[in-house]
Amino acid sequence: MLTGTDHDALRRDFRWSFPARLNMAEQCLGHDPERVAIIEHDGAPRPVTYGALTAMTDALAHALAAERGERVGVLRSQSGSTAAAHLAAWKSAAISVPLFKLFGPDALELRLRDAGIRTVVTDSEGRALLAPFSDLRVIVPEEGLPEAGPFQTLETGPDDPAVIIYTSGTTGAPKGALHGHRVLTGHLPGVEMSHDLLGQPGDVIWTPADWAWIGGLFDVAMPALALGLPVVAARMAKFDPAAVARLIEDCGIRNIFFPPTALKMLKAADVSLPGLRSIASGGETLGAEMLDWGRRAFGLTINEFYGQTECNMVASSSAAMFPARPGAIGKAVPGFDVQVIDEAGAPTTGEGDIAIRRGAGSMMLGYWQNADATARKFRGDWLVTGDRGVIEDGYIRFVGRDDDVITSAGYRIGPSEIEDCLLKHPAVAQVGVIGKPDPLRTEIVKAYVVLRADHAPSDALAAELQDHARRLSAAHSYPREIAFLDALPLTVTGKVMRRELRKLAEAEIARTTEPNP
Question: What is the SS3 assignment for 141?
Answer without folding.
Answer: helix
